[in-house]
UniProtKB/TrEMBL annotation:
Keywords: ATP-binding, Folate biosynthesis, Ligase, Magnesium, Metal-binding, Nucleotide-binding. SUPFAM superfamilies: MurD-like peptide ligases, catalytic domain (SSF53623), MurD-like peptide ligases, peptide-binding domain (SSF53244). PANTHER family: DIHYDROFOLATE SYNTHETASE-RELATED (PTHR11136:SF0), FOLYLPOLYGLUTAMATE SYNTHASE-RELATED (PTHR11136). This is Dihydrofolate synthase/folylpolyglutamate synthase. The lineage of its organism: Bacteria, Pseudomonadati, Pseudomonadota, Gammaproteobacteria, Oceanospirillales. It comes from Kushneria sinocarnis. Belongs to the folylpolyglutamate synthase family. It is an enzyme of class 6 (ligase). One of its GO terms (molecular function) is metal ion binding. InterPro entries: Folylpolyglutamate_synth, Mur-like_cat_sf, Mur_ligase_C, Mur_ligase_C_dom_sf, Mur_ligase_cen. Functions in two distinct reactions of the de novo folate biosynthetic pathway. Catalyzes the addition of a glutamate residue to dihydropteroate (7,8-dihydropteroate or H2Pte) to form dihydrofolate (7,8-dihydrofolate monoglutamate or H2Pte-Glu). Also catalyzes successive additions of L-glutamate to tetrahydrofolate or 10-formyltetrahydrofolate or 5,10-methylenetetrahydrofolate, leading to folylpolyglutamate derivatives. GO terms for cellular component: cytoplasm.
Amino acid sequence: MTDPTLAQWLSDLEQRHPVSIELGLERVGAVAERLGLTRAPIAGRVITVAGTNGKGSTVAMIEGVARAHGLTTAAYTSPHLQRFNERLALSGRELADESWVRALETVERARDETRLTYFEMTTLAALWLIAEQQPALAVLEVGLGGRLDAVNVIDADVAVITTIAHDHAAFLGDDLAGIGREKAGIMRAGRPVVLGSRDMVDSVVQHAEGLPVAGCHRLGREFDCSIDTRMAGWRWQGDASRPVLADLPDPGLPLDNAATALQALHCAGVPLVQAQVQAALNGIELPGRMQWHDRWCLDVAHNPHAALHVAQRLQQRPAVKRLALLGMLADKDIEGVVSALAPVVDEWLITGLEGPRALSAEQLAERVTRAGGRLREQTDQPAAGVQWLRDHADEYDEALICGSFLTVGAALAAMVEEREKSA
């Protein structure tokens, strides 16, 4: 019998555990200890990034700027858009299937009889791969939680919290103060924390003060960013030794997240150099975040806070007509997302998704209509929605493809397949 491939491993993990999300560190922590992940640092420095929105862009900019300064890096994010291998990059390169298989086999042996979810198994595999390489800097994106998230088995040298908003209510609840306390669980006493929101909930700041951490660096107070009116770019004002970087290029991602990324690196002891920062921000690419393909924009926004940011960006470029291809999971605030996007969407193209938390096109269409959206068409899957846009959208229309990583990932795959066919 041949050894399992990565695809077979992932399929088995999806079916093995009856619950896709099970918060708690007791099980995963025990296996991490057996793997040696908690006995020695996995990298020279570790930055952990939690929050409701902006985590992916912040991780990408931390990692990109670090590499521009000559550091070896590891960046762990989730979920992926098209390929599982996207979840871990070592110095900008994805790992081959064989590396992941080797890591999963190692975790499986260490697991013994301990029950682990898909996310816990794959997170431990990623951490083991990082520890094997010992990069100068590892940047870890926390999953939906914080305190009880599998990533939090690692003690970070710098903790970053981007935003606190409503999402994953079934697991984190609806109380923003409570959500903030969960996210704040990634902080460590005696180590700095960077808060990348101008409206951070009080519970996060109170948690930092109660530990206490080695400096609570808050956007808009201890550090900030602003448009540089004298030049074409923007300006970052750091704290402590008061470094200033001016004439920085727009990375195509939220500037608050860019400023937070620079502050995190500063707190991690990276001496930021103007030329390297400029070069890195000019080269940032993050699929699925305001990603344009001609007149189609793809963004994974799946809660009202993220959808509002998309709407604000789209309002800066008026369109003759804009259609939204929307596919969302059942546990999301669908009405809130539709309301946030309503000012920039003329008609809605609804698509169904697959999986245990998915909604059919009919179910989603009913909720979009209830929120006041004007329906144009329904399709069973995102690929069919992309084909409908090709066949029916006017050449001057814009399209927004959004609502879930599943929606955007499937749409990107369909677009790549079509491009390959026509090549």
